[in-house]
Each structure stands twice: as C-alpha cells, then as structure tokens.
Design a protein that fits this description.
The protein has helices at about 15-25, 35-50, 65-75, 90-100, 115-125, 150-155, 205-215, 225-235, 245-260, 260-280, 305-315, 345-360, 370-379; strands at about 5, 55-60, 80-85, 105-110, 130-135, 140, 145, 160-165, 185-190, 200-205, 285, 295-300, 320, 320-325, 330-335. The chain starts with 5 loop residues before the first strand and ends with a helix. It is about 40% helix and about 15% strand. It has a seven-stranded mixed β-sheet with strand order 2-10-9-8-5-3-4, sandwiched between helices. A four-stranded antiparallel β-sheet has the order 11-12-15-14, with helices on one face. Strands 1-13 form a two-stranded parallel ribbon. The protein contains 13 helices and 15 strands. It has two domains: about 5-10 and about 260-379, Aspartate Aminotransferase, domain 1 (Alpha-Beta Complex), CATH 3.90.1150; about 15-260, Type I PLP-dependent aspartate aminotransferase-like (Major domain) (Aspartate Aminotransferase, domain 2, 3-Layer(aba) Sandwich). It has about 375 residues and is of the alpha/beta class.
C-alpha cells in the first residue's frame, strides 16, 4: 500500500514546496552583494514579524542556541535570574542559567497551566536584584500559553531587569507585540511557525537589553550579540550564515508580508479551534488549561498510552504527531497547527486519531470528530 507521509508534530514542521524550491537554488557566497541584499530584506521583514524597531540577530543554530545566547549576553557570574518553569522548555532556561553560574529563582507552575502574573510580581519584589525574567510565550511541551503582555507590564519599568521570552512556538502564530509590550529579548527558531527546516535562531534585542549586554561578563564567542550587531551595520553576519535557510526565510517572510499578520494569526486560530471542536465531540480532554493556537495537546484516555497513539499514527497511517515529554510521557499526544498545513490536514489527523484510539480499544464513533471539525471549518 502506498503510504503518504504527513508531518504534524510541533517542530520540525512541514515546509511549503515553493520554499523548498527557493532553498534548492544554486548556493551563493555569503559575502557577496547578492546575499547582502537578501539579508538586508530579511532583517527588515523580521522587524515586521516581531512588531519591533529593534535589531533582530540571526544565528546558525536551533532555537536553544538563541536561548543560550540570551543568557550569556545579558548576565554575569553570580547574577540572579527569575525563571518561569512550567514544562520541559521552562526547565531548559534554568539549566542554561545554572550552566553559567547564574543564581536561579524558579517559579514552578503545574504542567498544563499558565503562570499567574502575581507570582512573577512577588518574585520581582522578593528579588529586586534580578537581572532577567526568563519565560516561554507558549510552553510547547504542555500547550499552555503564558500571559506575556501582563508580565511585560511588570518588568517594563525596571531599568536593570530584562524580560526574555522564548517565543519559538508563538511568534508568527498569535499576537506578540515586542516593543509595545516591553519584551526585551524574544527568541524564535526556523522550524516552528516560520515553516522552515531546523537551523536558524532569531533574537530581537531591545535598547534596555543592549545596556545589560554592555555590562555582561559571561563568556561568549560565536553567540555574541555585539559581534552580530556590528555585522548588521556592514550588511553581513559575523560568521558564516546558513545561506540556504536565510534564502528560504526570505520567501517565508515575503508570504507573511503579503498575507498580513492578522490573516496569519487567524489561520492558526482556525486550525486550532476546528481541531478542538473534534476533541470535544470525541469526549476527549485538552491537557492545557490555557491552550495556544500553536498546538492542540490531548490527554490520553484512561487505559491508553499516548505514545501508542503516536506510534500507530506514524507507523500505520504515515502521520507524525508528538507525544509527551518527561512527566507527561504516555499521558498526552500533541497535534501541531504550525507549518505548511491546512484545515484538510487537520481532518486527516483527526480521522487517524479516531482510528488509532479504536484500535487501542477506546470506544470511538468513527467520523464523529471529523464531522465536528468539518462543521466548524464550514462556518
């Protein structure tokens, strides 16, 4: 039997054919005027995506490289940082800080829940010496969406404290107003909402954050904000960039400009709401209490291992979704709304979930979730 494959995990995601075609063109030299023109256009379009007037730095790395760069460029040994820890990637902020000798104040949030801004306020009042607050806009491992705007308001007027946001599965999915909300450093990666292969991290840096960069004494070389800022002035990069990925990024950003951010956000909202209509119709439950438009995270029914759902969908039906991580492993499964996906892809995924659950012995009325999603999309 011919098996068509679908990539519907929350990163890497499906890449559009026209983007792949641009990336497959003959390579050009990264110090040529031709590439500098492309790079300058990309940097301008990134400001539109980020809704910022700040420089956006491009590293050849996964998103974690952008996270590490945010730590080493802002802080010094012995500094204090507040970390919102509400899932696997919140834990990563703590691990990165501790690797560089930064004192961490953790705000531990139950998995699947969003942080209460009052907890951040309390931590700031208890630790006025904190140089940074690290958090996720959306915790990919749980599907929970944090109140970034409200926390930005808490940090905005603190001249010596930067708000650093991992928006790797948020930027380009829903509204994030970098400048207006006072988000000092915002990190994203190429393999999520930007619908590219992995390999780029992108970091916007505010003027307040640049003042902290000037004082930072943590070691950095390749991941230096200062080196990259100097290179921006020369229309180049400090080190050899991921040329083909940046050319693909130019194509993606062109499409976002043409569609407009409101239409891009509406697309993700529509896919998420249609999928969740199916989840409700099937009598299943969402894991997140503050669900994001980026991914639908479903609690595995009693007696069903979520990893088995993932395995059947991948191996029998050719559909790659994601399971849970760490303490959520086996308890959930996750369907992405990012990448080159449409409402028809959601219907395919829902149909496969129904069949996988039925195969695993869960009582499912085949087609019930599909019908709910179709009715939602038809509206």
């Amino acid at each position: 039997m011919i098996k068509k494959r679908y990539l519907m995990a929350p990163g890497p995601v499906a890449v559009a054919p026209q983007v792949l075609a641009r990336m497959s063109e003959p390579i050009i030299h990264h110090r040529s005027p031709q590439f500098s023109a492309i790079l300058t256009g990309v940097r301008s379009d990134l400001k539109y995506l980020y809704q910022t007037e700040n420089d956006v730095i491009i590293f050849a790395s996964s998103g974690t490289g952008g996270m590490e760069a945010s730590v080493v460029n802002l802080l010094s040994p012995g500094d204090t940082a507040i970390v919102v820890r509400a899932g696997k990637f919140g834990e990563r902020w703590t691990e990165l800080c501790e690797a560089y000798g930064v004192t961490v104040v953790n705000i531990d949030v139950p998995w699947g829940e969003a942080v209460d801004p009052a907890e951040v306020q309390n931590a700031l009042e208890a630790h006025p010496e904190a140089k940074a607050v690290f958090m996720q806009a959306h915790e990919t491992s749980t599907g929970a969406k944090h109140p970034v705007r409200e926390i930005g308001a808490l940090v905005k007027d603190r001249a010596e404290t930067a708000l650093v946001v991992d928006a790797i599965t948020a930027l380009g999915v829903y509204e994030l107003k970098t400048d207006e909300w006072g988000l000092d450093v915002v990190v994203t990666g190429s393999q999520k909402a930007l619908a590219l292969p992995p390999g780029l991290s992108l970091v916007s840096v505010s003027e307040k954050a640049w003042r902290l960069v000037e004082k930072s004494r943590l070691p950095k070389y390749y991941l230096s904000f200062a080196k990259e800022r100097k290179a921006i002035g020369k229309e180049t990069t400090a080190f050899t960039p991921a040329v083909s990925l940046i050319i693909g990024l130019a194509e993606v950003l062109k499409g976002i400009r043409e569609a407009g951010l409101p239409a891009v956000f509406e697309h993700h909202r529509r896919l998420a709401e249609g999928t969740r209509a199916a989840v409700a119709a099937l009598g299943l439950e969402l894991f997140s209490k503050a669900p994001s438009e980026a991914v639908t995270v479903i609690t595995a029914p009693a007696g069903i291992n979520g990893q088995d759902v993932v395995k059947i969908m991948r191996e029998k039906y050719g559909i790659t979704i994601a399971g849970g991580q760490a303490q959520a492993k086996g308890k959930i499964f996750r369907i992405s709304h990012m990448g080159h996906l449409s409402e028809w892809d959601m219907i395919i995924a829902i149909s496969a979930v129904e069949r996988a659950l039925k195969e695993l012995g869960h009582p499912v009325e085949l087609g019930r979730g599909v019908a709910a999603a179709e009715a939602h999309f038809a509206r």
